[in-house]
Amino acid sequence: MTMRWEGNDLVVEILFSQAGLATQVLVGAGSTYLLFDAGDGTLRDLLERGVPPKKLAGAFITHGHADHMAGLWGLLGYLRAEGHTESFTIWYPQGACEVAEALAAFRRCYGPTIPYELAEHPLSDGELVRLENVEVLARKLEHWHSIQGKPLAPAPALGYRITFLGQTVAITGDTAFHPGLEDLLRGADLALIEATWEEEGPQGLHLTRREAQKLARLAKAAVLLHRPDGRLLCNRPTHCDPP
């Protein structure tokens, strides 16, 4: 299921989101196009929407788990093969070794044959990124590495709050419930909130549907994503399309 939301020269599209498989969100703010997470199939999803990857200024990754970054290599490789010459930046949580190692491996493999500047910026809680008239604020989340639902250790993870022409979009990424989420989501014109668990699961991993619905009331419009069945739960004025 997909979703498209439009504001004042601001467009947000959930290209795909299913827990454990992939999540990718496209934000177009004026002439600036940004990707938030790049799960498996990102390149396919962009091309199917008629969005050339060359339009992207870069990608913000919420955390290093495969369903949020497995499509990054394919995206970088496509830009290389197509002879992209402008810079492409990856922002990600400080300490997310999965992202850092993937970028390092890409550089080792292709080195001087990469025709564009591949930049990377690890982010910490509270850091603000400014791109023309777009601002992206990084906020710390509470998420853990796990195997078969068993928590192992904390994972570096960030949510993002995007501001453009007085409009705000908040993206939680994967997170357990914690008080900081309210600050991330409060007053947003659109909030994209993960809602993986139907009922409470292991601590430190994900929000329940009930928790996500409660948080959704803090925003003017909200979409619950990262669902096990891939379906999006939307409220007006957003619009979810069937697959």
How would you characterize the largest beta sheet? Answer: 8 strands, mixed
Please, what is the average pLDDT? 94
Radius of gyration, whole Å: 17 Å
Number of domains: 1
CATH architecture: 4-Layer Sandwich
| CATH level 4 superfamily | Ribonuclease Z/Hydroxyacylglutathione hydrolase-like
Under CATH, the topology is which? Metallo-beta-lactamase, Chain A
Portion of residues in beta strands equals: 35-45%
Number of distinct helices: 6
What is the name of the CATH class? Alpha Beta
Helix/strand structural class: alpha/beta
Structure characteristics:
single chain, 8-stranded mixed beta sheet, Metallo-beta-lactamase, Chain A, 7-stranded mixed beta sheet, alpha/beta, 6 helices, 243 residues, globular
What does this structure look like?
It is built from six helices and 17 strands. With 243 residues, the chain is of the alpha/beta class. The chain has one domain: Ribonuclease Z/Hydroxyacylglutathione hydrolase-like (Metallo-beta-lactamase, Chain A), CATH 3.60.15.10. It has an eight-stranded mixed sheet. The termini are close together. The relative contact order is 0.16.
